[in-house]
Amino acid sequence: MKTYSVRFSHSGNEANISHDALRAAVVDFLERWGTRFYLGPDFGTLLGHGDRFANLLRACGKDEAAFFQEVLHQLAQAHHQMDDQEGPEVRVSGIVLPKRLLLVFLEQMLPGDGFVAVRSVEQYAELTNTVVPGEQREDLQQVIDTYPVRLSRHVLRQSRLSRHVAYQFMPFVQELDQTGLKNTWIGQFHQGLLEQMYQNRPIFVLHMSCPVYCRFCFRKHKDCRNLPAPTVEDVQKAVEHIAASPQIKEIVLTGGEPLMNKATLTTAVAGLAGIPHVQTIRIASRCISYYPSLFFAENEFWLNYLINQNRELQKTNKKIEIATHFIHPDEISHYSLEIISRLVKGGVGVYTQTPFLKDCNDTGAELAELYAQLRAVGSELHYIYIPCSPIQGNNIYWTPISAGHAALAHLRGHLPDRAMPILCTATKIGKIDWNTSGWAVEQSGEEPDMIWIRTPYTEGYFKSFAPRFSLEKSRVNREETLDSRFMAQIGDESLFFGHLSQSAPPVRDFDPEELGRVQQLICRDQRIRQSIVPTGIEALQRVHRAQVEVDVSANRGMDDILEYIRANPEISDVVLAAEDKILNHLSEVQAYARALRSLPQVTALRVRSLMFAYEPEAFTDDVIAELIALNHLDP
Ligand code: SF4
Questions:
Q1: Residue 231: inside a domain, yes or no?
Q2: 427, 443, 466: which is the final residue of a domain?
Q3: Of 396, 427, 458, which residue constitutes the final position of a domain?
Q4: In this structure, are 573 and 494 located in the same domain?
Q5: Could you tell me if the CB of 150 is within 6 A of ligand 1?
Q6: Among 103, 286, 378, 509, fewest CB within 10 Å belongs to which?
């Protein structure tokens, strides 16, 4: 059997790679994932159709053995460098190979799943194929001793290819900086593993550790990591508390990493499933990104469990949702996309949350790419947390508040409306959504590194479920909600909105006749019919850089419309609307659903129907079945 031998440049470790195994892995990967969507437009075009591996070899002018040797040799030198934003580049005959393809090679060179606890600088250097400068070794060892380091084999491979992945998980000497808070806030009410910050949704902290430790974690201190994991009995007690608290509708099962503890997680789900007032069980897991093999282990235990449990829960109008966590597009692997896609197709909602990290995802462009790809496989996009947690050891990640606003403005211009996340800050007393449920009021007079943030919460709200709530780091403002003092720089003084200067507008009496008139007006024409640029096609409006609206009631021009969309690859969302009721045009809707399948850039087909609100009886079982079938039409 033909093998290739490699020696890693810094660690000196050696590996033997089977030609047949490598070939099979590369061919399989290119067949399934060798698309413009996943590997980028240039490389996807180069791969073309048919035998993509043969096309790649032809473009590189190499035979298989020469190609493999070249790539393996370059990868043996690869390691992360924090000041190299692009990361190591592997190039064959001038063609740059995408990191996502290189991951397949590294899986042969550095095989294995699982995770490792890193306890020394030497071990860290060997695992990452790096050299730690002599003057940093002592400090780095102190970091490792203070803030535990754990890395999955998957993250170790990705980190050799991407500085943006390494930046999230690899220890660094600046963690010794003491600026910031030692411990995080943990809700107003605690009882065992239960923490409650909001009246209707507590969290269960089911497991204290994670397979990979994010360096920016708000629970990063060793004291947190070393707490004993809750027992099944602890979970049962928490479930009893929920059963006796009818105001609680949602529970977030979290940690640490809750999927690391099968016994406590399955006990929690089974217990909560039997409580009538519980509607949603959210499970917060970052394994989709940094430890995807967990979902495929034990005959795909977690994938099957989540999908099957959700089906059972749906029988009593409950559901499971997965809250996951991505920061940079380099973290996305084909495993992540497959997990999200299978969960969503199996009926389990997935939503993504994103800490905002300086020098990683703080310009907007990275997030636009990240969200476009995650949304394409079905993830909803939920919160961007600005700034990332103000905990000791984290300050290299901090950005001013203004940087988050600037990134959001970029996203507004580059993502369709349905893909827009919410910009939020998690204050000590709860989250605020920027400039809707809260805003920056003013600089704190006493502490220059603190600002006052307006929240919608009141003392009464917290006292309703946490009688011992205290105003520490908060104040009652003149509108009688609470302001929270938060460690951050504003970055742009114009973001200080001060106090409300006017009282709220008067509430008008409800007038059913006026409502009827407004409804008639809205339903008279259900199209937007405003284009930001001329499309030259009567039935096509460009309503956003990434979104068009098609008037299906015009019933003409489909070829021109498809051609326009094809020529503008940034369009991801197609909204179908009609002057009259869209349900009168279901055959046209089906025709578009079929035709748009030939355009992989289009990741969302949206059907606008105001009847959904005003004439719900029009959605008969047959109509609903036809709409569901749009997701499964043959090309
Ligand atoms: S996954 Fe969450 S809890 Fe675990 S280390 Fe990362 S941020 Fe912390």
A1: yes
A2: 427
A3: 427
A4: no
A5: no
A6: 509
CA distance 174 to 425: 24
Indicate whether 585 and 487 sit together in one domain: no
Q: Is 578 in the pocket of ligand 1 (CB under 6 A)?
A: no
Range of the domain at 521: 516-632
The rounded Å distance from CA 39 to ligand 1 centre is 28
How much is the CA Rg of the chain, to the nearest whole Å?
26
The CA 210 to ligand 1 mean position distance, Å, reads 6
In-domain check, residue 310:
yes
Using DSSP's 3-state secondary structure scheme, residue 174 falls into helix
Cα distance between residue 79 and residue 570, in whole Å: 33
Q: Is the CB–ligand 1 distance for residue 288 below 6 Å?
A: no
CA of 213 to the centre of ligand 1 (A): 6
Residues 6+ apart with CB under 8 A from 622: none
Q: Is the CB of 256 under 6 A from ligand 1?
A: yes
Residue with the smallest CA separation from ligand 1 atom 3 is: 256
Q: Which two structure tokens, joined as six digits, stand for 259?
A: 């999927």
326 CA to middle of ligand 1, Å?
A: 11
Per-residue pLDDT tens over the stretch 108-163: 999 999 999 999 999 999 999 999 999 999 999 999 999 999 999 999 999 999 99
d(CA 145, CA 163): 23
Q: Is residue 133 part of a domain?
A: no
Q: Which of 256, 263, 202, 190 is nearest to 232 (CA)?
A: 263
Place of tokens 């009567």: 538
Q: Which stretches of 34-132 are DSSP H helices? A: 36-39, 41-47, 52-60, 64-75, 99-109, 121-128
Ligand 1 atom closest to Cα of residue 290: 1
Specify whether 345 is located in the same domain as 451. Answer: no
Q: Does the C-beta of 214 come closer than 6 Å to ligand 1?
A: yes
Examine the domain organization and report whether 421 and 437 are in the same domain: no
C-beta separation of 514 from 534 below 8 A: no
Quote the pLDDT of residue 185.
65
**412 CB contacts (<8 Å, ≥6 apart)?**
420
- Please tell me what DSSP assigns to residue 508: P
SS3 374: helix
The predicted-structure confidence for 537-564, as pLDDT tens digits, reads as follows 999 999 999 999 999 998 789 999 999 9
> Can you tell me which atom of ligand 1 is nearest the CA of 218?
8
Nearest CA to ligand 1 atom 7: 217
Asked if 436 and 570 sit in the same domain, the reply is no
401 and 291 both lie in a single domain? yes
With a 6 Å cutoff on the Cβ, whether 213 touches ligand 1 is yes
Give how many domains the chain has, as a whole number: 4
339 in ligand 1 pocket by Cβ < 6 Å?
Answer: no
Residue 520 lies in a domain: yes
| pLDDT 10s digits, 176-225 | 999 988 776 667 788 889 999 999 999 999 988 999 999 999 888 777 78
Which atom of ligand 1 is nearest the CA belonging to 254? 3
219 CA closest ligand 1 atom index = 8
pLDDT band at 501 (very low <50, low <70, confident <90, very high): low
Looking at the structure, tell me whether residues 422 and 447 fall in a common domain: no
Ligand 1 and 258: CB distance under 6 A: no
CATH at 319: 3.20.20.70
Task: Indicate if 412 and 451 belong to the same structural domain.
Answer: no
Q: Report the separation in Å between the CA atom of 368 and the middle of ligand 1, taken as the mean of its atom positions.
A: 23
Residue 216 CA to ligand 1 centre (angstroms): 8
Q: Ligand 1: does its nearest atom lie under 6 Å from the Cβ of 488?
A: no
CA of 265 to the centre of ligand 1 (A): 17
